[in-house]
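Task: sequence design from structure.
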């Protein structure tokens, strides 16, 4: 049975030199049998739920901390460290979250080649045990891609996204994700992306639009 997910996040970020802080809280709408979670995939519920239904509400919030390491050499890649803490602000009884705190740590690499940039991410997520959602497990994830400018205010990129199975009821995720960013004005940027999935855990259709303002 299909599941449709509409995810509307609101984020606020601050930079303190090499240290970055961001807080994200989303509004979430999920239509389906209640056996698919955002950023997890298929799960097994310890409560009855086989009919298609719609649940709406606040999703899980994410607190993100990033730190940019000093460059080892002029030609060395940039390296960032990141910690994400998923706070259980979603209602797990509605099927909007697990009701548990999760932790994700990752390391990001980026290397400029002329005007283009190659980037890679390697990380791991530690998930809290849930009495409602069975079979959850810790898992690794990775990304590899590149981005390049096509004009003074347009950029194009593409990356390969791998996510290890986060549940004993779903396979790994392998997706190819093209995206673009458009600088609408000096402080405004719009980003759009879609994806092509290669496993049953991937979405049949995804579309994302994000507008950001910096000052």
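Answer:
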């Amino acid at each position: 049975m299909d599941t449709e997910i509409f995810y509307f996040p609101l984020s606020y970020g601050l930079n303190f030199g090499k240290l970055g802080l961001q807080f994200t809280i989303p509004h979430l709408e999920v239509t389906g049998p209640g056996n698919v979670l955002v950023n997890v995939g298929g799960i097994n519920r310890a409560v009855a739920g086989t009919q298609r239904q719609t649940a709406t509400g606040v999703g899980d919030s994410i607190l993100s901390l990033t730190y940019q390491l000093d460059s080892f050499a002029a030609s060395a890649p940039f390296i960032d460290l990141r910690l994400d803490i998923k706070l259980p602000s979603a209602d797990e009884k509605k099927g909007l979250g697990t009701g548990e705190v999760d932790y994700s740590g990752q390391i990001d690499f980026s290397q400029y080649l002329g005007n283009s940039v190659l980037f890679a991410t390697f990380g791991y997520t530690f998930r809290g045990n849930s009495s409602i959602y069975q079979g959850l497990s810790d898992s690794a994830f990775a990304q590899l891609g590149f981005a390049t400018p096509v004009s003074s205010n347009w950029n194009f990129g593409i990356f390969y996204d791998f996510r290890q199975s986060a549940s004993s009821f779903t396979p790994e995720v392998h997706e190819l994700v093209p995206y673009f960013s458009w600088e609408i004005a000096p402080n405004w940027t719009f980003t759009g992306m879609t994806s092509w999935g290669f496993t049953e855990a991937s979405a049949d259709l995804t579309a994302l639009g994000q507008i950001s303002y910096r000052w």
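The chain has a mean pLDDT of 90.
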